[in-house]
Design goal:
The complex is a heterotrimer of chains A (112), B (503) and C (141). Chain A is built from three helices and no strands. In chain A, helix 1 packs antiparallel against helix 2 (24-44) and helix 2 packs antiparallel against helix 3. Chain A is an all-alpha fold and 112 residues long. Chain B is an all-alpha fold and 503 residues long. The two termini of chain C are 25 Å apart.
């Protein structure tokens, strides 16, 4: 139970980074921490007490395997997170090229 | 291979087109690529009408296709029912006319093939969200469409576009994070991902803590995708800075498919609605209408005004959905159709004005009606439909929602909807008076009408906008009322799908 | 980069590439599969670029090859999925299944792994190349 609470605490740390940091790179790092926390949380949902890893082999029995489906879904989510991080970094590089700063309080051309 | 295999075409065709365009970009001429894009969008539109035809002949109005031959709960199903086909027609109609518009709009850009690749990836994601019957598959397609849209906003790399794209990307991914955690909780509680199977398990097991918590997470996540207040802050920047055809696609289709359709599908047919949730949805809708309505009147940038008006109309749709009476849901679904056509047309005309006059500020324009008659006529028709002037379609949908509010006894919400209509009328009248009517200013004496491709799509959409009200005639009404019936029958959806899949 | 890095890179870069292909090929027997193996394949090219510079790396895999191979990979994936229609359903597993836990078994799943390994490997290297080119255009201004 404490593991789930710690995982949600990690999610809140990432959310704090996204909300309160002023540097664009730190916002991206906060978003990556949120991604790690989400994926870890989902994998932990599949855990079975005294279970073994879900790798099929001829000699083992499969009755006490940990649930492999959340691991597949997290695999997909990691790939999606990778694509999103690459896009965010590219946008950040272009912003630095156009505006000369990474500080979001100074990039305020759109108002109203 | 039975009839329901047509559901796979909606994902195969745009995906194939996107990668073919990216491969052939340097080998063939620009005209061939534009022809390929219009051809595939036309094929998608034809397939969606064909799917509507097949569905009307099937008993029970439900078609299930099992991918790989695996039945539920092991495999992913593609489900075609009244609501899916309705949204498919809206998405593909918008995609078809916008791909015709693109021929004129991206003519001067060097890397138009990259634009078209991203555009068709977005169409893949949108189609996938609508037809899938599996919860995590819907999340994957939602992310595909969202990431393509983040990249499309900053397509013309100016400082404003990049700032808007960054804000949109961060807020959109926080919304997706909430949706993912909601799906994680639901999987942990029901141990299945198929929508119909999950609905069956949730009806049997009563989750007193999990279900309300997950519903709130979904309202936050999908509400951010749909731009309900107070999650709307990304929309004015993103829709203003995007290229005009992309703004039309966003406002017309994306916020309603990724936000309202997904929320309605999960809340009404899987989890089952409670009165507290519906009241929350109605309250959020009313706040959207009032706040965005007031903010839209005070804008001087033409596209920003239309963006705030989008937030307001989505609030009206959420209000209609939150009523959960037959009349309310019918009004909300009909308004989805009317708003997508009218708002796409408004953004396309704004792009046409921007292309010719090179300005978006209403204070600088005046009297463009003399030089750009087609654009002015389209803009006038769309504005009248959106403000609710009879006999155009928007009047009927707004009237049905207001009557549904009064019928249920929520007089405050009916008053909010009427106030929203008045504010919309003010904002649209402002655009018409400043941009199109009045004296032609000196510096605009030499502007020309927009290219032929842009005019074709504006004229076609104007026709659909003007005659849209005819969808309520008794012969054509099944198109809208089948979609409303799917939401009304709620959790019985699961039994029907499992039975159709077992055949 | 220093002499030590260049010398070690010359020795181990082929081992990294073969390890990546091993993980792609054994995707249906042991953990890994298309995406994880593809990342390791991409990392071998990135290691080449980090140690020896952009010129050497782009002479092996140029920009155009990277962009085009990625599209070809995606189209091949779609083609294998469409082959399932011959068996009756989209994405159906139509080839011979063989005995479980051997290398040549499980029908079309190893084919998906190979195509994904190609696409992800080349695609991630293309993303890294795009960042390096962006940085160079910024420095040249």
């Amino acid at each position: 139970m404490t593991l789930y609470i710690l995982c949600l605490f990690l999610f809140c740390v990432g959310l704090y980074g996204v909300l309160r940091k002023r540097n664009i790179v730190k916002i991206i790092v906060g978003f990556a921490i949120m991604g790690y926390a989400m994926n870890l949380f989902f994998v932990m949902f599949g855990y079975k007490f005294h279970g073994r890893s879900p790798i099929g082999d001829i000699s083992q029995n499969i009755s006490n395997m940990v649930d492999p489906l959340p691991q597949e879904l997290v695999h997909t989510s990691i790939v999606i997170g990778l694509g999103l991080t690459a896009l965010l970094i590219a946008i950040a590089i272009k912003i630095y090229e156009k505006c000369g700063t990474f500080d979001i309080t100074k990039i305020k051309r759109l108002k109203g | 291979m039975n009839n329901s295999a047509i559901a796979t075409l909606f994902v195969i065709i745009p995906l194939c087109t996107a990668f073919l365009i990216s491969l052939m970009a340097k080998l063939v001429k620009r005209g061939f690529i534009y022809t390929l894009s219009i051809l595939s969008a036309g094929l998608l539109l034809f397939s969606s009408f064909y799917a509507l035809n097949i569905l009307s002949k099937t008993a029970g109005n439900l078609l299930v296709y099992k991918i790989g031959g695996w039945g539920p709960p092991f495999g992913i199903c593609l489900v075609l029912d009244g609501l899916s086909v309705f949204m498919l027609i809206i998405v593909n109609l918008a995609a078809f006319f916008i791909s015709i518009y693109n021929v004129g709009y991206t003519d001067k850009d060097d890397d138009a093939p990259k634009f078209l690749t991203l555009f068709f990836m977005m169409v893949t994601g949108l189609n996938g969200v609508v037809i899938t019957g599996d919860l995590f598959n819907m999340f994957v397609f939602l992310e595909v469409a969202s990431i393509a849209s983040y990249a499309l906003v900053c397509y013309r790399e100016g400082a404003e576009e990049l700032e808007a794209a960054f804000k949109y990307a961060i807020m959109g991914s926080v919304g997706s994070a909430f949706i993912f955690i909601g799906i994680a909780f639901l999987y942990g509680f029901t141990s299945t991902l198929n929508m119909a199977d999950m609905s069956r398990v949730l009806a049997a097991k009563q989750g007193i803590f999990v279900v309300p918590f997950v519903s709130v997470l979904f309202i936050m996540g999908f509400g951010l995708k749909a731009a309900l207040a107070p999650f709307h802050a990304w929309l004015p920047d993103a829709h203003t800075s995007a290229p005009a055809s992309i703004s039309a696609m966003f406002s017309g289709v994306l916020i309603k498919t990724l936000g309202i359709y997904a929320l309605a599908r999960i809340l009404f047919t899987i989890i089952g609605t409670t009165q507290a949730l519906l009241s929350a949805l109605m309250a959020l809708g009313a706040i959207s209408i009032l706040a965005a309505g007031v903010l839209s009147v005070s804008q001087w940038n033409m596209k920003r005004l239309f963006a705030y008006s989008s937030i307001e109309q989505v609030g009206l749709i959420a209000l209609g959905l939150g009523l959960a009476t037959p009349l309310g849901i019918l009004g909300a679904i009909f308004h989805i159709f009317q708003h997508s056509v009218a708002k796409s047309l408004l953004f396309l005309t704004a792009g046409s004005v921007d292309n010719s006059a090179h300005t978006r500020d209403l204070r600088e324009m005046s009297g463009l009606k003399e030089k750009m008659p087609v654009t002015a006529a389209g803009s006038l028709a769309a504005s009248m439909s959106l403000s609710g002037i009879p006999p155009l379609g928007g009047f009927f949908s707004k009237l049905i929602i207001i009557l549904a509010c009064i019928e249920k006894g929520c007089y405050f919400y009916a008053l909010a909807a009427v106030a929203g209509s008045v504010l919309t009328l003010t904002a649209m009248a402002k655009v018409q008076r400043f941009a199109f009517f009045g004296e032609l200013k000196g510096k605009f004496k030499n502007i020309k009408e927009s290219p032929f491709a842009m005019q074709v799509s504006i004229v076609c959409l104007t026709g659909i906008c003007v005659f849209g009200g005819l969808l309520l005639l008794p012969q054509l009404r099944p198109f809208v009322s089948n979609a409303a019936d799917v939401l009304l029958q709620g959790v019985k959806y699961s039994g029907l799908v499992l039975e159709a899949a077992a055949k | 980069m220093s002499v030590i890095v260049k010398a070690i890179t010359r020795i181990i870069i082929s081992m990294v590439l073969v390890f990546g292909i091993y993980i792609v090929a054994h995707g249906h027997v042991s953990p890994g599969g298309g995406f994880a193996g593809g990342v390791i394949i991409a990392l071998s090219f990135v290691l080449l670029m980090l140690a020896f510079g952009k010129g050497v790396a782009t002479s092996k895999v140029t920009r155009n090859i990277a962009a085009n191979l990625e599209g070809v990979g995606a189209l091949m994936f779609l083609m294998i999925a469409l082959l399932g229609f011959l068996g009756g359903a989209f994405f159906m597993n139509i080839l011979a299944k063989g005995t479980p836990f051997k290398l040549f078994s499980a029908g079309t799943i190893p084919l998906y792994n190979y195509v994904l390994g190609l696409k992800v490997g080349v695609g991630l290297f293309a993303i890294y190349l795009a960042f390096v080119i962006l940085e160079n255009t910024r420095k040249n201004k």
